[in-house]
């Protein structure tokens, strides 16, 4: 295979020449643009001169006209942007006029609606610098952009500007059908703080459930105590469950365990199952005083009315809504409050008194006894658990590790009377117990378990 | 056996290896080019394509069995998806978990109304992911179903992107996103898995979509139309590779499946060889189940995507396995018989080397598309053929042994999870 080096060299040189020419043209164009921007900036600098004399005013006016009539609109707009940082309102308004006349505002508005991500960010930055009424309107529209990063950038630009009337428009935007706009508007109000809180409180009376919910969430996010009194009445009168749920969460956030009384009321009486479930969970999250007793008691009342939700033909347990969700929330709350799994199970069993009467009461009481500080009572609990059957097995196995040998021995004997082969391993470990009574009880128990199993097998 | 006879056998085997290897690599080369073209067409947009009217409702299905380690993180990610709250429900199917999975789910359910739970009773579960999903579909509210594994962390925009693509084309039964490896920097194994996943998705998935409008369901991070699923008959409870099996049935019904590379989910992959082996054995046996189920109908098949799906499974688990075995045999025979490579005709060995170079080039292209063409990854890719790929020989051999010799029944076996402290962070 022959390689035509001459051909390759010619092609390479041609490509290099084309590339070089393009690069040179680009550099030339950029230099010319930079020169034009420089000229425009020199004209714009005349706008900064103090207008203390008539001649100075006329010169300023002439500079403004020159900038508006400048042949390169982009250069003129770039120069005018440099004036936006001035504190003098006259200079700023002159700069905005230039931007309007050179169609820079139109360009940025168009970029904000249809441009790429980078163009949108540049437009937001520019409009944020302008900050007049029209610019803020454009930024408010951008709060609803599909791209959450663009929406957040617009929100930051508005907060940085903080025009008075933007807060009103933001509050109105809470009921916008554009969810992104509504949510970003709420977040912006939270960031603004101050008078925005009053506007949020005003939105609590809005006809739009979305606006009310966002207002509640925003007030909760501010953490301020002031709106608390405005929030509480919503628990009793707002028809929308998501709003009531948000109120409960906001109160928990604002008051912490101080919201316990209110949360208890919600947990007991709200018509929506999930709002009740959430209230139970919040009581646990804020570690409200008396939460444990309240949760356990509520669980017992709930179990009495619970119907199974299993699909008999498939033995599926379906927990989508209703009392089962409330039960799940209570159990989760108990775990959050430091209940062990055995204690949770005991509370659950204790709660299912109405549904399952076989030893449930005994199991709950006996398990509770196992947690007693008095070893004699713990031993009594271990003895009582023998009649609770297999449900108590786990509790008894744990009791084999009790510090008091009396309790360990009673637990071993109970397992011997009621346990299955699963108990043999923990009982075998008791053979190394330092107390002779425990070792004897364990060996007797193991013999009993094995004999009972053997008899069962023979029978079967 | 004389040296000449051995040399002839050696050369014949080498020639067979060449034909097999080049057939497979040639097939993948075509897919690589198509995947590269698609990567340009599908450059990551900043946002999901706009949807006319309201976003449709989606039911997310998450089957779980003993997932206490990963469940909480997955549910957090799903609850933070950028999707309207009143158009989304998340159904977790607790398949007879014996650990704390249930408790984790209950804790999350107390914070968000969208979470729902279906519990399969102890003793009646463990029948696999397909069975769990079929149960969940009965209670799903919406017409679009999204499936995520219990150890996934989808990016917030990913669901919107998948839904937008699906509703834009009625011929699509499903859209599948990309799966990335969370713990890719942990050790050599996870780096190999990372390279493998990137290659699979940009070569196989992207290439198949670009050429034939037919990607493959990956088991997680996909959205499927409920009516298409019902028309295809739901998930096959006998199939371990439920995703590949359903793909074939959807193709039979005339549907397409689109690969959407910018809808990304992150998941941890096995960090230990034992766990990896069990996982891949399950996949291999699942794949051969699909092949056995449909190979007899191959002659009557008219739809190209269906032929391609079955052929693709053949190439991964059969042809590649055969090529690797032959390749290894050549080295063994050559060394043990003292034939050595000095007696081999130059072009054959050169062809073998070129095939290897092309394989590495395909990996490099896929890594470059993903932006992961680091020197370390390229080195891992080079080392993979002689290490990671060779272990596939054992996996495929064992799969065939269990299927054909022991005729052992296919059983679902879950992958052991990595504790969160050992997982990488989602970038």
Sequence-ordered SSE layout with sheet pairings:
The complex is a heterodimer of chains A (460) and B (427).
Chain A: H1 5-48, H2 54-69, H3 73-81, H4 89-101, H5 104-114, H6 117-130, H7 133-142, H8 148-161, H9 164-173, H10 179-192, H11 196-203, H12 209-222, H13 228-237, H14 241-255, H15 260-269, H16 273-285, H17 291-305, E1 310-311, E2 316-319, H18 323-336, H19 341-351, H20 360-370, H21 375-384, H22 393-399, H23 405-418, H24 424-429, H25 436-459
Antiparallel strand pairs in A: 1-2
Helix pairs in contact in A: 1-2, 1-3, 3-4, 5-6, 6-7, 6-8, 7-8, 8-10, 9-10, 9-11, 10-12, 11-12, 12-14, 13-14, 14-16, 15-16, 16-18, 17-18, 17-19, 19-20, 20-21, 21-23, 22-23, 23-25
Chain B: H1 3-41, E1 58-64, H2 71-79, E2 88-95, H3 101-109, E3 115-120, H4 129-137, E4 144-147, E5 153-154, H5 158-167, E6 172-181, H6 188-212, E7 222-225, H7 226-232, H8 242-252, E8 256-267, H9 273-295, H10 304-336, H11 346-370, H12 375-386, H13 388-405
Parallel strand pairs in B: 1-2, 1-4, 2-3, 6-8
Antiparallel strand pairs in B: 4-7, 5-8, 6-7
């Amino acid at each position: 295979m022959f390689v035509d080096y001459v051909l390759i060299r010619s092609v390479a040189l041609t490509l290099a020449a084309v590339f070089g020419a393009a690069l040179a043209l680009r550099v030339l164009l950029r230099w010319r643009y930079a020169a034009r921007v420089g000229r425009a900036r020199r004209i714009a600098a005349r706008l900064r001169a103090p207008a203390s004399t008539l001649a100075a005013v006329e010169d300023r006016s002439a500079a403004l006209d020159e900038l508006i009539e400048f042949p390169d609109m982009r250069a003129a707009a770039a120069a005018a942007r440099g004036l936006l940082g001035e504190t003098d309102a006259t200079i700023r308004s002159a700069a905005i006029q230039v931007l309007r006349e050179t169609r820079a505002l139109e360009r940025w508005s168009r970029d904000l609606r249809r441009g790429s991500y980078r163009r949108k960010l540049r437009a937001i930055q520019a409009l944020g610098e302008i900050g007049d009424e029209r610019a803020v309107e454009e930024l408010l529209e951008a709060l609803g952009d599909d791209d959450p990063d663009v929406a957040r950038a617009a929100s930051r630009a508005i907060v940085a500007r903080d025009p008075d009337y933007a807060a009103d428009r933001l509050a109105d935007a809470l009921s916008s059908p554009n969810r992104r706009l509504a949510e970003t508007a709420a977040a912006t109000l939270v960031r603004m703080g101050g008078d925005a809180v009053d506007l949020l409180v005003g939105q609590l009376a809005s006809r739009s459930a979305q606006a009310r919910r966002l207002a509640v969430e925003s007030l909760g996010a501010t953490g301020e105590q002031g709106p608390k009194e405005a929030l509480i009445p919503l628990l009793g009168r707002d028809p929308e469950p998501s709003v009531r749920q948000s109120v409960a969460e906001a109160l928990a956030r604002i008051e912490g365990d101080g919201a316990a009384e209110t949360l208890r009321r919600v947990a007991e009486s709200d018509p929506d199952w999930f709002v009740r479930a959430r209230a139970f969970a919040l009581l646990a999250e804020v570690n409200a005083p008396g939460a444990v007793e309240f949760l356990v008691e509520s669980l017992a009342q709930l179990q009495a009315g619970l119907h199974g939700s299993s699909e008999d033909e498939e033995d599926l347990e379906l927990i989508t809504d209703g009392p089962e969700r409330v039960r799940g929330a209570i159990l989760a709350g108990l775990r959050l409050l430091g209940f062990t799994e055995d204690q949770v199970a005991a509370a659950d069993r204790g709660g299912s008194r109405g549904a399952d009467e076989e030893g449930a009461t005994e199991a709950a009481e006996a398990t509770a006894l196992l947690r007693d500080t008095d070893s004699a009572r713990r031993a009594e609990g271990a003895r009582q658990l023998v009649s609770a059957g297999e449900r108590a097995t786990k509790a008894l196995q744990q009791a084999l590790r009790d510090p008091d040998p009396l309790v360990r021995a009673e637990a071993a004997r109970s397992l011997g009377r009621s346990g299955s082969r699963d108990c043999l391993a923990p009982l075998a470990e008791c053979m190394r117990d330092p107390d002779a009574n425990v070792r004897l009880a364990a060996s007797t128990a193991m013999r009993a378990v094995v004999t009972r199993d053997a008899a069962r097998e023979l029978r079967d | 056996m004389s040296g000449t006879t051995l040399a002839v056998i050696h050369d014949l085997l080498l020639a067979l290896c060449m034909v097999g290897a080049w057939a497979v690599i040639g097939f993948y080369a075509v897919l690589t080019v198509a995947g590269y073209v698609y990567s340009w067409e599908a450059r990551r947009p900043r946002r999901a394509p706009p949807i006319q009217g309201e976003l449709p409702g989606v039911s997310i299905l998450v089957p779980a069995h003993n997932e206490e380690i990963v469940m909480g993180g997955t549910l957090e990610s799903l609850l933070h998806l950028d999707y309207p709250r009143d158009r989304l429900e998340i159904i977790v199917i607790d398949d007879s978990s014996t650990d704390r999975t249930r408790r984790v789910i209950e804790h999350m359910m107390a914070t968000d109304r969208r979470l729902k739970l279906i519990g399969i009773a102890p003793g009646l579960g463990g029948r696999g992911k397909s069975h769990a999903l079929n149960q969940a579909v009965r209670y799903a509210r919406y017409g679009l179903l999204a499936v995520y594994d219990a150890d996934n962390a989808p990016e917030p925009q990913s669901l919107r992107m998948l839904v937008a693509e699906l509703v834009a084309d009625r011929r699509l039964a499903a859209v599948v996103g990309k799966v990335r490896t969370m713990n890719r920097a942990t050790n050599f194994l996870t780096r190999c898995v990372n390279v493998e996943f990137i290659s699979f998705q940009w070569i196989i998935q992207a290439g198949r979509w670009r050429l034939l409008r037919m990607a493959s369901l990956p088991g997680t991070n996909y959205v499927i139309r409920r009516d298409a699923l019902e028309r295809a008959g739901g998930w096959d409870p006998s199939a371990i590779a439920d995703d590949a099996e359903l793909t074939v049935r959807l193709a039979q019904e005339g549907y397409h499946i689109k690969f959407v590379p910018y809808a990304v989910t992150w998941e941890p992959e096995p960090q230990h060889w034992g766990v990896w082996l069990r996982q891949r054995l399950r996949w291999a046996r699942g794949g051969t189940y699909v092949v056995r189920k449909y190979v007899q109908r191959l002659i009557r098949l008219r739809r190209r995507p269906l032929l391609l799906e079955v052929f693709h499974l053949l190439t991964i688990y059969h042809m590649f396995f055969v090529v690797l075995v032959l390749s290894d045999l050549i080295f063994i025979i050559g060394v043990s018989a003292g034939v050595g490579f000095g007696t081999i005709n130059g072009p054959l060995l050169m062809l073998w080397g070129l095939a290897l170079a092309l394989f590495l080039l395909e990996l490099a292209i896929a890594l470059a598309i993903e932006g992961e063409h680091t020197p370390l990854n390229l080195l891992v890719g080079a080392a993979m053929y002689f290490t990671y790929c060779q272990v596939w020989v054992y996996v495929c051999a064992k799969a065939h042994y269990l299927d054909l010799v022991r005729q052992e029944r296919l059983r679902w076996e879950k992958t052991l999870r990595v504790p969160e402290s050992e997982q990488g962070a989602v970038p």
